[in-house]
Amino acid sequence: MTDTSALAHELTDAYANRRVITVPPSGRPGGLDLMAGYAVEAELVRMRRAGGHKTVGLKVAFPNRALWRVLKLETLAWAHMYDDTVQYAKANHATLSVGRMFSPKIEPEIVFKLKRAPAAAGQPEAVLEAVEWIALGYEIIDCVYADWKFQPADFVASFGLHAGLIVGEPTPVKPADIPSLFEKLASFNATLAKDGQLVAQGGGKNVLQNPALCLAELAAAISRHPTAEPLAAGDVITSGALTDGQPIAGGQTWTATVSGLDLPALSTHITA
């Protein structure tokens, strides 16, 4: 049986003190299943709130049905984000310090802000009726497990690897635009450049074929989960990596651009 509190404190300490965990919880005697992973994540939320921080939304991971079969998942995974891990770019430029991180990576993503909880069922495009705005963003992930080797339960239990979120200029979602926006989210392309050099390409098809479908899947998964807190107005939701995540280090400048979707490019300078 998992000691939820002890594991939450171990993982918090590992991040705070830059201590590598050589054997993930799932590989230890007794293991760690996904439900126990979410119990640890809930304890992390409790601890952070007790420390004066607010949860501001959720990040998602594994938005790929083929990967679900490999990892024996029934749906995507999620973890909370906090008021001290989310920042909003100014004029679509931000600065990020990675000095206290292990081996951070950057992932361009579509970010949604909810104006109400989306329905867990119904027409796929209807999920956008619950969205106040969308934006291009970067999720910064960091891993305390050696060589980035872990199972989904380990991922959930370690803050979902969430180290930060940078949000670009929001674009309001207008009801009349929802049908065309849904189509654009399925077909747009994304590029990621480091210091002006292209390093990765992708797009909306990489996240359940459409970031809006990723949001719908999250709403449905949370509605089925016995202990998950429901989505609510004001929540900020990331919808999965549009390209492969890329390692980052001080001195670099990263720029994400999209075509086929009316969102401005987002640039971030990395400091040590």
Question: What does this protein structure show overall?
Answer:
The protein starts with a helix and ends with a strand. It is globular. Strands 1, 2, 3, 5, 6, 7, 8, 11 and 12 form a 9-stranded mixed beta sheet that branches. It has a single domain (4-271), classed as Alpha-Beta Complex (Fumarylacetoacetate hydrolase, domain 2), CATH 3.90.850. The model has no long low-confidence stretch (mean pLDDT 97). It is an alpha+beta fold. The longest helix has 17 residues, at 34-50. 43% of the residues are buried. It contains 6 helices and 14 strands.
In brief, what are we looking at here?
With 272 residues, this protein is an alpha+beta fold.
- End-to-end gap: 40 Å
CATH topology: Fumarylacetoacetate hydrolase, domain 2
User: On the 0-100 scale, what is the average pLDDT?
Assistant: 97
Class from secondary-structure proportions: alpha+beta
Low-confidence stretches: none
Ordered list of secondary-structure elements with their pairings:
Blueprint: H1 4-16, H2 34-50, E1 55-61, H3 65-71, E2 77-82, E3 86-88, E4 93-97, E5 105-114, E6 131-141, H4 152-157, E7 162-167, E8 171-172, H5 178-187, E9 189-194, E10 197-203, H6 211-224, E11 236-241, E12 246-247, E13 253-259, E14 266-271
Parallel strand pairs: 1-11, 3-7, 4-14
Antiparallel strand pairs: 1-2, 5-6, 5-11, 5-12, 6-7, 6-8, 9-10, 9-13, 13-14
Helix pairs in contact: 1-2
Features:
single chain; alpha+beta; Fumarylacetoacetate hydrolase, domain 2; 9-stranded mixed sheet; 6 helices; globular
